[in-house]
Structure formats: C-alpha cells, structure tokens
Design brief:
With about 400 residues, this protein is of the alpha/beta class. It is built from 16 helices and 14 strands. A hairpin with a 2-residue loop joins strand 1 and strand 2. The structure holds pyridoxal-5'-phosphate (PLP). Pyridoxal-5'-phosphate binds next to helix 6.
Length: about 400
Amino acid sequence: MAFPLFTSSRKPLLRRCAEDQVTRMRLKYSPYYHTMQSQKGTTVTLDGRELIMLASNDYLGLSYHPKVIEAAQAALARWGSSPTGARISNGSRAYHTELERRLAAFLGREACHVHSAGYLSCLTSVAAFAQKGDLVLADKNLHSCMWDGIRLSLATAERFSHNNPADLRDILANSSSDQAKLIAVEGVYSMEGHICRLPEIAQLAEEHRALLVLDDAHGLGVLGRQGRGTADHFGLNDKVDVICGSLSKSLASTGGFVAASSEVIEYMRTHSKQTVFSAALAPAQAAAAMAALELLQTEPEHNERLWANTRRYKAMLRGLGLDIWESETPAVPIVLGSRERAYFFWKTLMEQGVFTVLSTVPAVPPGKDLIRTAISAMHTEEQLERIALAMAEAKKQL
Ligand SMILES: Cc1ncc(COP(=O)(O)O)c(C=O)c1O
C-alpha cells in the first residue's frame, strides 16, 4: 500500500511532516532503521546477508552471556513481562531495589534509582535539580538527553567548548556567585570516544559550588576498577555529585540509572516527573543488568578482551591513515569530513559486510561528518581481520 503524502493536507503539522526533506529522502532510501532478520553475537543478517556488527554498544559482549540470558528468563518466569505502571503508584518490586542497591554499592554511592531508559535517567539528572534562575554549564558535545533535561529545567544554559576546562573556567569567572550552578559532562563522549577531563572540571565544580552531573553511559564497564566508570578511573568518586547512565551498553540490557546521595535520590523520586509518571523497569531487563553487573566483578576477561580488541582495531585504523579524532576508548569515530565522503565510506563498508552508523551534520560539528564504530569484547580475531580488509577497501575507494 502506498503511503499518502499529506502535502495538500489542511493540517499544517501534517504538511510539515510531508514536506520535510529528510523524511522525503528516508521514504525513498535511508542508511538508518534497517531491520535485521537475525542476530548472533556480533553477526547480524540483513536482507539475507551476514554482516559484522560494528555499531552496537555491547562493549563487554555480555548480551549473549549464558548467565545474563538465564537471569532474564528466570525473572520473566517469576515476575511476568512488565510491572505495568509507575513505582509511585503500584509499587517497586524486589528486583528494582536489589539492582539499585547493587549499583549504588558498585559506584560507591548511598543510593540509586533505575528508569526504563538511560535517556530518562540522564535527562532527569539535570531537569530534576536545576530550576529557572539557575545556571547550567554544559559541554558543547553533550548527548541530546542532557540538552533536553536542560531545556525542561528552564535554567539558563551556557555551553563550554568540548572537553575544555579553560573555557569552562572563563565562563564561571564571569558568572554571578549568587547563582546556583550545575555542570553537566559525559564520562566518555559517545560520538568522539574522548574521556572527560574530570580532574580539572571537578576542581572547578568545587570552587564554584556547582552540582557536578556525570553521564557515564559509555564509561561504565569500560573504565575504572572492574568497570566502575570514569570517576573511579580518576579516583574522583567523592567529587562527582550525580552519576547517571544507561543499562543498554556494558550492562547488556535496556534502562538507565541515577546514583547519588540518599537525599538527592529521594528528592528526584518526588520532584522528577520522568521518575514519578513513567512505568518502571521491566523484570527481565533488571535481571539482565544485575547479572551483567555481577560479571563485571567476577569475570575481568571481558574488559581485558575489550581493550585488547580496541588497541588492535585502532592500530589498524591508524595504519590506514584514517582520522579517529583521538578517541581514547572503544567508541571510535572515523572522521571523513563531508557528508558525501562519510556516506560513500559507510556504503562501501556495508558492501564489504561491516555494519556501521553514519553520523553527519547536525549530529556532529561541521566538517566532522563521520562513521561511528564501537568495538566489543565479542569481536573475534577473524572478524577483526575482515573489518581490516573492509576498511582498507573503503579507504581505497575514497
Ligand atoms: C551518552 C549517552 N547518554 C545517554 C544515553 C541514553 O541511553 P539509552 O539509550 O539507554 O536511553 C545514550 C544512548 O545513546 C548515550 O550515548
């Protein structure tokens, strides 16, 4: 059945959808929203072809770990498929509070709250605490969930240049000392793979009495002792006020968390609309995250293999002369510099059997159009060799 185009509709909002260039292009062809017919670890089947998945954030490769699958299945059998409501109305379940207790202990915090998406957790980590009249200082390259949190908070926002404490210092020096402040950063910047310059930023937060909120979606499981994340990596656990993140990356599940002091978490539970009015995390998702969290602490080999794969992968990319934007982590961009170059690089990789994600302006700064890739502990030697051949071919075709 053909989709109707509403260009002639009398409803302006339907016309806006129909006339939008990106939407019109997507209806014809799009490098996004592919439907895989099957998946086994880092191999996916798309339109009958097997591809190596190089775009997931399953850093530790735990989404196929037998203990994770077993825990999720047992939770499903015991608790059913969904809590079917918000915790404030129909109650928390033991699996919520147990996961929160374990995450809080792992991150060295008094308390934790889990949401059904990392996006909700990170958004609310700003929106719940900053208010109109406050000042939020945000890294320019922050994930959109934090930007949405800033907008919802109605606080004044100032962006500082990416991972640049000197710029942050200048902005703070010109701000009013009476204004309550919040600094929002990512532990590992998801697109660039940069590690936050936390020591200098935490120092500034202290000097200016600013609440420091760290989105560690890509640091958890990757950095720090047993994967405790970016604050732990720098030994700065006590300098970060709020750690938020996602369960959908190293913890091989879906959902998100906010970890902080007991007062902060209780304040959030009563003041954050995203927490009060949204259905709770599902049992299988909580159980999968809990099992993965246990594996972080009992099976260090996943983290070790992740870093071994990352080193090998980056050496190969550098050897080909590709620009990886000084990524310091397993999140590795390949900067191509223009939409056309990025598109053709991405397309050649697809033809060569490697699935990556194309990221162009406005998702990245002008001139930084890129392919975003992420390495997993699950990538095999043979897959890394096939990836190397595909990259060499894509580079040659450029
Ligand atoms: C830095 C960062 N924060 C938060 C999120 C949101 O997490 P989730 O996908 O679990 O909603 C993401 C996901 O892409 C992310 O990269």
